Amino acid sequence: MLSKTEILEKLRGRLVVSAQAYPGEPMRDPNTMAQVAASAVIGGAAAVRIQGLGDIQATRSAVEVPIVGLWKDGKDGVVITPTFQHAYAVALAGSHIVALDGTRRERPDGLSLAETVKRLHEQTNALVMADCGSLDDALAAADCGADIVGTTLAGYSGERDKTDGPDLELISAIREADLPALLVAEGRIHTPAHAAAAREAGADSVVVGTAITHPATITSWFTEAVED
Known about the structure:
EC number: 5.1.3.9
Structural class: alpha/beta
CATH topology: TIM Barrel
CATH architecture: Alpha-Beta Barrel
Family: Belongs to the NanE family.
Protein name: Putative N-acetylmannosamine-6-phosphate 2-epimerase
InterPro entries: Aldolase_TIM, NanE, RibuloseP-bd_barrel
Number of domains: 1
Keywords: Carbohydrate metabolism, Isomerase
C-alpha cells in the first residue's frame, strides 16, 4: 500500500485524467468508465479522477495508479461529495484521494470543512482534495488540513469570473501563497498548451477531463468548427 507521501509524489509534475460521464449518456456505465480510465493510464496518466461509487470500484480493479474519487449529489450549491457520509463512502469504495467541495459555503450536513477533513483523516487512509473556487477557499482548505487544493470550482462558485481556459491568475495566486498542500490545476484545460500554461503558472499537477474523456463535447467542438 502506498503511503500518503508516495501518493502525493506520484502526482507531482504529472497529469491526472478525469473520466466521468453524465447521467443519460451512452458511456454512463462503471465498466465503461473503468476502461476509459485504463486507456488514459496507458497514455501516461499518473492518476485518474472518478465520479460515483460504482465507477470507483470498477476502476480500482482496472488500474494500478491512485484514484481521486468523488460523488456528485444535487444540482446547486455544494454538490461534489457534499457531506461526510458521501466522503466516507467514496473512501471505502477504493479511492486513494477523496475530492470534495472545498469552498467556504455551508455544507448540507452542517459540518464544517475542517470537521469533515479531520474525520476522514481519522477514520480512513484517504487523502483529501479540496475543490476550490478562490484563493480564500484554498487558504481555508489548507488550514483545515486538506492534502491537495484544486482550482476545480474557479468560475463556478460565484467568487470569480469564468475564464476562457484555466484560471491562471488563481493558480499563480495560490502558488504565491506557498501553501503546504499540493496545488492541482483543474477546470477548462482543453489543450496541451493550457496544461503547460497551468504548470508554468505554478500548478504541481494538472487534471484534464472533458478534452480527453468526453466524446460528446469533443465532437461538438469539431462539429462547430466544420459547420461554421
